[in-house]
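Q: GTP cyclohydrolase 1 type 2 homolog, please. Structure only.
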Amino acid sequence: MTKVIDIVNKFEEFAPKRIAEDGDPIGLQLGSLHNDVHKMMVTLDVRPETVDEAIENNVDFIFAHHPAMFVPVKKFDLDVPQNAMYAKLIKHDITVYGAHTNLDNVNGGMNDWLAEQLGLENTEFLLPTKVDPVSNEKYSMGRVGELKDSLTAMEFAEYCKKVLNLRGLRLIAADSQKPVKRVAVLGGSGGRFFNAALLHKADAYVTGDISYHTGHDMIAAGLTVVDAGHHIESICKPKLTDKFKKWNNENDWKIDIYQSKLNTDPFQFI
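A: Structure for GTP cyclohydrolase 1 type 2 homolog:
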């Protein structure tokens, strides 16, 4: 019988925990690494609705990009929805594992997937390069590359909306007709890293969760920015599902792999 630890060990060969950012609460979140796995679910977020989805589909292992526990529980008050969710996971014996910034940093992971989705060519690292002390492989978060054809800022925003399958986005640009050819991208909340995009001479920067005052700073710096939202990281669901299916066949795990069908973006565009 395949155990959680068998799946985790294989994943961590690809994206080891040691390349995650300091303090990131990755890894085992709830349950046991030694639990049996019959059916696993791949998801971006662990929310009450995704837990219900897992229960309805007889899932016993949830693999998520965003850790379920960013903030420690001080009081296990079950009237708090997040606590009630944890209790439900325990009650149904569902193990939860989170792979966050190790998946963001690894080569062939989150930021390469986003760069590929945007059609960027000749990509390089966005943030300062680090070195895995075991493999000696260089890694970094974010990517910078070139579009095949130059677009105006407005055309680029429309292009992002299409290729990232978005219902809406926010464009931050002093001039909507400014040409965009060189593009930086960083999945998640990347506003504080916009100076890295400037250092790499990017015309535009794609990320999520831009704050009001940071938006002003971006305009003052002459950088076109597309706030495509944090939820663009849901690209991890099909990409990870494909990886796990490949490993399932190669390692004869004999488990079912289910991709969450829920959209966990908290924002609606009206």
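A: Brief note, in case it's useful. The longest strand covers residues 179-189.
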